[in-house]
Amino acid sequence: MTDRRTQLARNLAQVEERIAAACAAVGRKREEVTLIVVTKTYPASDVRLLADLGVRHVAENRDQDAAPKAAECSGMPLTWHFVGQLQTNKVKSVVNYADVVHSIDRVRLVTALSAAAVRRGRELDCLIQVALDAESGDAAGRGGVAPDGVAALADALAEAEGLRPAGLMTVAPLAGPYAGRPRATFERLREIATDLRAAHPAANMVSAGMSADLEDAVAAGATHVRVGTAVLGSRPRLG
Ligand SMILES: *Cc1c(COP(=O)(O)O)cnc(C)c1O
């Protein structure tokens, strides 16, 4: 029996090695890529162990789980990322703990999040979630805006008080022309990110890559990888 801390430390070391190797393979500096550990479905006690082991970025995808967990972990030196689909009735809660929201996909959400951030006196970094299956009509309902909607959303974020356009996020599609092609997916995201930076130079985050495909994301220029399973283990269903 290994205890949880030992197990997490071992998994983290393996993920760290993968990221370092992926950076080296394409001549990137290790510091160009930030590891975000996705702690959804796992308890606050795991978040504490991860913080102890040096993790500084964690992500959650459901407000009802994230809010109490973040409250329990409030003393820890962590940046909280919200990566799930976000309903406007949840923004008031999310602005209490989230530092970065990865799932901006409609102007109505920008408006609601801005109002909530201002009321709470907070400044949030916001990533636009790009659905690369939207153009083919195969969007799986996992959120995200089609590539041709990115520019307008970035302008809306730039004008919204309490929010900053910080970059792009995507999840590798399960259907459509990009299904099963993570490298092509992330290369396409890179192109969209280059266009975005031309208009908003500070919007330079590219959030892409998960446990299964982080090497492809790093090769295609990702600045942030979101890793759950490879650090914490397989989730029980409903992840
Ligand atoms: C769960 C989740 C991840 C992590 O996925 P793993 O395959 O467990 O690494 C990354 N991004 C988002 C948006 C998620 O919901």
UniProtKB/TrEMBL annotation:
It comes from Streptomyces caatingaensis. Keywords: Pyridoxal phosphate. This is Pyridoxal phosphate homeostasis protein. Belongs to the pyridoxal phosphate-binding protein YggS/PROSC family. GO terms for molecular function: pyridoxal phosphate binding. It comes from the Bacteria. Its cofactor is pyridoxal 5'-phosphate. Pyridoxal 5'-phosphate (PLP)-binding protein, which is involved in PLP homeostasis. The keyword Metal-binding does not apply. The modification N6-(pyridoxal phosphate)lysine is found at K40. NCBIfam families: YggS family pyridoxal phosphate-dependent enzyme (TIGR00044). Residues 12-236 form the Alanine racemase N-terminal domain. The keyword Cell wall biogenesis/degradation does not apply.
